[in-house]
Amino acid sequence: MTRKEIKAARELLNLRYYGGKCHVPSNLIRPWLKEDEVFKEELSCREMINSILIYGGSCAEDAYQYKRYLKPYTEKGTYHDGLITKERLAELIEEQKADIAKAQIGFAGYDSEGCSYNYCKFADEI
Fold first, then answer.
1. Bridge partners, residue 118, by sequence
2. 62 phi and psi, to 5 degrees?
3. 23-32, 45-54, 82-91: range with lowest mean pLDDT
4. DSSP 9-29
5. How many other CB atoms sit within 10 Å of the CB of residue 125?
6. What is the DSSP letter of 125?
């Protein structure tokens, strides 16, 4: 999924559960269906995968980036609470690799603190 597709999917979830408003009192929020919770986590995971790939990191299981940023999506008791199976995570990685392969990625420069930034233009943004 590209950045635009992820944003559109998030907006649909917000519309379904919050009526399009992000800040609704908790007593007015509909309870989330399990499949929508998983889908929401998948969107977040896709963004993390994109970030790792854009900066030249590895999504291989033995890589630091995988252990630090992706593995928590599959583990119970973490912030993400293991909503995504390892098999599904592998599928998401492959899907995002295919989208990133069609994107333009480049070095965007440094900020005032010396951190470097890359940019990514997906095929639907070019």
1. 107
2. -90, 0
3. 23-32
4. HHHHHHHHHHTT-S---GGGS
5. 11
6. G
CB atoms within 10 A of CB 28: 9
* Contact yes or no for 66/72 (Cβ under 8 A): no
> Residue 23 contacts by C-beta under 8 Å, 6 or more apart in sequence?
none
Collapse the DSSP code of 45 into the 3-class scheme (helix H, G, I; strand E, B; otherwise coil) and give the result. Answer: helix
| Total number of residues shown for the chain | 126
pLDDT at 60: 95
Tokens for 108, please give them.
Answer: 């965007």
Whole-number Cα distances in Å, 120 to 2, 13, 52: 10, 25, 12
* Residue with token string 């989208």: 99
Per-residue exposure over 88-119, b if at least 16 CB sit within 10 Å of its own CB, e if not: bbeebbeebeebbeebebeeeeeeeeeeeeee
Query: What one-letter code names the amino acid at 126?
Result: I
